[in-house]
Design brief:
The complex is a heterodimer of chains A (228) and B (71). With 228 residues, chain A is mostly helical. Chain A has 7 helices and 2 strands. Chain A has a two-stranded antiparallel ribbon. In chain A, β1 and β2 form a beta hairpin. Chain B is 86% helix and 0% strand. In chain B, α1 (6-38) runs antiparallel to α2 (43-70). Classes of the chains: A mainly alpha (228), B mainly alpha (71). The A-B interface holds A 65, 68-71, 148, 150-151, 153-154, 156-158, 160-161, 164-165, 202, 205-206, 209-210, 212-213, 216-217, 220, 222, 224, 226 and B 2-5, 7-8, 10-12, 14-15, 18-19, 21-23, 25-27, 51-52, 54-56, 58-59, 62-63, 66-67, 69-70.
């Protein structure tokens, strides 16, 4: 049975910073996304075909969701929400490829709490930044006292839940696959691979949708209308 | 409320369970830290857990309420 550990393996150091296999895998995912974006936009046509068509379809779906939730300002959130979605989706799916988990260099990025916590912290500060920009610093600070002092606890619990949900689901998937491969190596793991492909896209959707919801709420005027 | 997609509804529903646990964990940790500073165990730990539960419920209600107001 392959070795599974919660802690990521340190591969090398960049100055004082340890580079773990989960970070290295995140770099590979980033590189795949960058190359994919380059290929999709290299020869843009007014009537898209092939790969450009596929990518435009995915982006338009996400744009539709953003605008349905946040109204016209949803377009402003698309770059971040879309990037988070594609990064998480490709990290999860690439983690199912042969080599991930078997070699010390590769590990599904989101099966390391440090990666998911880093993304949740980025979302937390982004949401606070948008809230300050939309409401003004005085009104923003007032929210923490009036109407409810539990607001602070509520705000702090969001990144924690974002980080642990993604990490928990992906790490549990890795453990499940390794256990099934050890117990019943014939055919049965394939079913669980199918399940993990589904979990991968669901978790990417949940993280990005919650980010969108938090951003929408943060930029909302509490009189009832949104900032446009 | 604006027409939430199925996946947004799933995301919000999954947030309920996680945010409850996360808020209680934060409340417990803050209470435990205060207790260890002031040697008042278990007063602040218990209060922190209670505040965490209330904060978790508040957070869930807030998301749905704000989205309704937004729509």
């Amino acid at each position: 049975m392959e070795h599974i550990s919660i802690q990521a393996t340190v591969l090398f150091y960049l100055g004082p910073l340890p580079v773990t296999n989960s970070i290295f895998s995140a770099w590979i995912t980033t590189a795949v996304l960058v190359v994919g974006s380059f290929l999709a936009t290299r020869r843009m046509k007014l009537i898209p075909a092939g790969f450009q068509n596929l990518v435009e379809y995915a982006i338009e779906l996400l744009l539709g969701v953003c605008e349905t939730t946040a109204g016209p300002q949803g377009r402003k959130f698309l770059p971040f929400v879309g990037t988070a979605f594609f990064f998480i989706l490709f990290s999860n799916w690439m983690g199912l490829l042969p080599g991930y988990g078997d070699t010390p260099w590769l590990r599904s990025s989101n099966s390391d709490l440090n990666v998911t916590a880093a993304m949740a912290i980025v979302v937390f500060f982004l949401v606070q930044g948008w809230a300050i920009k939309a409401q003004g610093p005085f009104r923003y600070l007032k929210e923490f006292v009036v109407p409810n002092p539990l607001h602070l606890l509520s705000e702090l619990s969001r990144p924690l839940s974002l980080a642990f949900r993604l990490f928990g689901n992906i790490f549990a998937g890795e453990v499940l696959l390794a256990t099934m491969a050890a117990l019943l190596p014939l055919a049965v793991p394939a079913v669980f691979f199918g399940l993990e492909i589904f979990v991968g896209i669901v978790q990417a959707l949940i993280f990005s949708m919650l980010t969108l919801v938090f951003l929408t709420i943060a930029t909302m005027q509490h009189g009832g209308e949104t900032h446009h | 409320m604006r027409n939430l997609s199925v996946w947004q509804a799933v995301a919000i529903a999954s947030q309920v369970g996680f945010v409850m646990a996360a808020a209680v964990a934060i409340g417990l940790f803050a209470g435990w830290y205060l207790d260890s500073l002031m040697h008042t165990s278990p007063v602040f730990t218990a209060l922190g857990a209670l505040a965490g539960m209330a904060g978790g419920i508040f957070s869930c209600v807030q998301i749905v309420r704000d989205l309704q107001r937004n729509g």
